[in-house]
Amino acid sequence: MRATTTVPARGAARTSGTVRIVGAGLLGSSIGHALSALGVDVALADTSPGQLRLAVDYGAGRVARDDDRPRLIVVAVPPDVTADVVARELAAFPEAVVTDVASVKLEPLRALRERGVDLTHYIGSHPLAGRERGGAISARADIFIGRPWVVCRDDQTSPADLAVVEGLALDVGAMPLEMDPVEHDRSVALVSHVPQLVASLLAGRFAGAPEGSLRLAGQGVRDTTRIAASAPELWVQILGSNAAPVVEVLDALAADLGEVAAALRHPDAPGARRTVADTIRRGNEGVELLPGKHGQNRRFAQLVVMVDDTPGQLGRLFGELGELDVNVEDLRLEHSPGAQFGLAEISVDPGAVRRAEDGLTARGWRIASTTND
What family does this chain come from, according to its entry (predicted)? Predict the structure, then answer.
């Protein structure tokens, strides 16, 4: 896997001519919003007239016309119909470059090859972006900014066609990455598909739990289960299309869980505590490998500030951090039920944490804690 280029400053669009987007849901409409903001002519098509009209009303593009001659076609439909729509679009617009944004790449490619479809102008791709909520009403132009956009070229892909798809990714603010379909599907199984299942399984344990137990939930459990709000219908298709790589990761995870459960059944047995400690340590090591801000494997210090639940307080906090010449690298907010304040966990450069703590304290802010790894 390699990055093909870096994200440039937003300016003139690389994408020219008409872009036809088939599927006016979250991803399709979000691409439409981002391209429309750059002045690109976006033609939207969808089997649902209501969804299409909603996307148009929100400004994602215009309704596609029979006389459109698109240079680029983006297929943004569910995985189980991706191959059908790609084949239809290639036949209808033989001169256009066709890409799809499905979250699995190998299965649609296999289906197209089995049908003998001419794939000269087809390039599968996948933006690693989204939201828990779907549909045109949830679409946003900025969801791709800074996110990877996988492009699955092959030996037959022409440089000109590749440039069209990579130009699309760059225009919406994403970072193009080249991967083959097998590598892509194994990668998303690990970092996307299995995490969805784990979040759903964990959140499912809350069903029927005593109300008192759930009232103890903090930001940690909310972070862990955030994606459990995703649509079941879509995930049934995604997981079914990428079943083998997902099962491989699940089997390894199940073995790890079994090992920890065995240790905790007899916590005083020789080696039990080491098993638990090694599990937590491996988690620490894994987190350290995740890319941070701007794709860097860089860790920041955390400063937890108590913020009164009144208008303007968060803005004042940011303003005073700016006066202290402290850049906010990341922010997480936590509200405790019934409390009149929230906790703002602010990530800053480790070299600035002492300056931030002293300066905010002098200005009357209450610091709950600081950590500096």
Answer: Belongs to the prephenate/arogenate dehydrogenase family.
